[in-house]
Design brief:
Elements (H helix, E strand, L loop, with lengths): L1 H13 L8 H9 L4 E4 L6 H11 L3 E5 L3 H13 L5 E4 L5 H9 L6 E4 L1 H4 L2 H8 L3 E6 L4 H5 L6 H8 L7 E6 L4 H10 L6 E4 L7 E7 L3 H14 L4 E4 L3 H13 L4 E4 L5 H12 L5 E4 L14 E4 L6 H8 L9 E7 L3 H11 L4 H9 L4 H6 L5 H11 L4 H27 L4 H8 L19 H4 L14 H9 L1
Parallel strand pairs: 1-6, 1-7, 2-4, 2-5, 3-4, 5-6, 8-13, 9-11, 9-12, 10-11, 12-13
Helix pairs in contact: 2-3, 4-13, 15-19
Pfam families: DEAD, Helicase_C
GO cellular component, one term: replisome
GO molecular function: 3'-5' DNA helicase activity; ATP binding; DNA binding; four-way junction helicase activity; hydrolase activity
């Protein structure tokens, strides 16, 4: 009878006749009162697991989400589905709007907020008085990936969640190593969770590695790929400036493309994301700030023009291709010095020995260091978190270990593309799986299907240089 009710709810609210993969089993476990960790590949409907569960649970579903654009998109999508008792609490809201949401929080079924918002005392106080039936951590790998680097409030979840020992927890992410899973279980205090893990192998993604002589040839190759096919894609690059430069050059050549990165205004990022989702914009050139939770099924290309910081980062970003199950491709363009740039970019913002000395001996307010441009605000956040938990003599070795871990991750992803072994096989082995069957097309190591493959990446809508949306975006940027 319970299964019948789930099927009926699925059809009535979401319009689907059947569940994907392990969705039904996850929801059944939640309704049975179990804590759950679910590793579901991109496109397998992670959001539906808490959306449908929330309809059948009595209280508030609290969703901790990493990005403002992600939570805004989720709320919009849910309201379109008829789940109108949904809200987000974030920095886009005015003080008056925030107070009103908190005042009537018990009238909502779904509330989205970031770890940083969750740590604010007024928010914590009101939530303590609310009836919360399910705590969801969406994109839960951020606990491990971002907590120690630049968002320590992800680590503070461990202290906060201690106040909700009797409330069920659901952790959702696409991919996770054994260490990431352990970090999730520790921070969310999950002792015996039900774990659902799908294969990380994305059968419909072809993995292409190309080695080029210089940076100029990378842009030329990107344009060549865009010219050969009329499709939708994401280009990932290492810096905001490069994203802006690429977008400007390619836009002038008639491609519907725009840059997306954290240097843009929040409202502009939301507009750009929505244009991309709606198919009014074909290409995004972005730093890693873009793509998480973006519900666009028909991305055919994900192109990297740099070496990602880890295999996990690469899997997350390449996995944004082909969410609809149609053949797609992940292309990485490399030259021999790329690992040096990645090492600098990924470690430059970490707390170092000189930062420790400055923080320790500065006699004024530490916030003055940020205001005067002497140190990045991110470093101050990380320092503030760890100085409360470690002795001073432990801090230097702690940050050195973090840096060594970054270096290890970079060299691991470098070997992924430089070894003469199947890229797909290496990827699934990294996540503890075995690739038993050889598939075709597979990757640039195993076969040479790429040139013929991209000819199929077409769609009916042509590129339009002077469309209304492009003029609006030009005005924004």
């Amino acid at each position: 009878m319970e299964m019948d009710r789930l099927d009926q709810t699925l059809n009535a609210y979401f319009g689907y006749d059947s569940f994907k993969g392990s969705q039904k089993e996850i929801i059944t476990s939640i309704l049975a009162g179990e804590d759950v960790i679910a590793f579901l590949p991109t496109g397998m409907g992670k959001s539906l697991t808490y959306q449908l569960s929330g309809l059948l649970l009595p209280g508030l579903v609290l969703i901790i989400s990493p990005l403002l654009s992600l939570m805004e998109d989720q709320v919009d999508q849910m309201k379109k589905m008829g789940l109108k008792n949904s809200a987000s609490l974030n920095s886009l809201k005015s003080s008056v709007q925030k107070r009103e949401i908190l005042r009537q929080v018990n009238s909502y079924k779904y509330l989205f907020l970031s770890p940083e918002m969750l740590m604010q005392q007024d928010v914590r106080s009101i939530l303590r008085e609310s009836v919360i039936s399910l705590i969801v951590v969406d994109e839960a790998h951020c606990i491990s990936q971002w907590g120690s680097d630049f968002r320590p409030d992800y680590l503070r979840l461990e202290e906060w969640i201690g106040e909700y020992s009797n409330v069920q927890k659901l952790a959702l992410t696409a991919t996770a190593t054994r260490q990431v899973r352990q970090d999730i279980e520790k921070v969310l205090r999950l002792e015996k969770p039900s774990v659902f893990q799908s294969s990380v192998n994305r059968h419909n993604i072809y993995y292409q590695t190309e080695f080029l002589p210089n940076e100029t040839s990378k842009l030329e190759r990107i344009e060549e790929l865009m010219h050969q096919t009329s499709t939708s894609g994401i280009v990932y690059t290492l810096s905001r400036k490069k994203a802006d430069d690429y977008a400007e050059i390619l836009r002038q050549k008639g491609y519907s493309i725009v840059a997306y990165h954290a240097g843009l205004e929040k409202e502009d990022r939301l507009i750009i994301q929505q244009q991309f989702i709606n198919g009014e914009l074909d290409w995004i050139v972005a730093t890693s700030a873009f793509g998480m939770g973006v519900h666009k099924a028909d991305v055919r290309f994900v192109i990297h023009d740099y070496l990602p910081g880890s295999i996990h980062e690469y899997m997350q970003e390449s996995g944004r291709a082909g969410r609809d199950g149609v053949q797609s491709a992940s292309v990485i363009l490399l030259h021999e010095r790329d690992h040096e740039k990645t090492i600098f970019t990924k470690t430059n913002g970490m707390v170092n020995e000189s930062d420790l000395s400055l923080f320790t001996h500065y006699e004024g307010s530490l916030s003055e260091l940020v205001e005067n441009g002497l140190v990045e605000e991110t470093k101050l956040r990380i320092w503030s978190y760890w100085k409360e938990r470690l002795q001073y003599e432990e801090l230097e070795s702690h940050f050195n270990r973090l840096k060594a871990g970054k270096m290890k991750d970079i060299f691991a992803v470098q070997s992924l593309f430089y070894e003469d072994r199947c890229i797909r096989k290496q990827l699934v082995e990294y996540y503890g799986e075995d690739l038993t069957d050889q598939q075709t097309p597979c990757c640039s190591v195993c076969d040479a299907e790429f040139s013929s493959l991209i000819l199929s990446f077409t769609r009916e809508k042509p590129l339009i240089e002077n469309s209304d949306w492009l003029n609006r975006l030009r005005n924004l940027l």
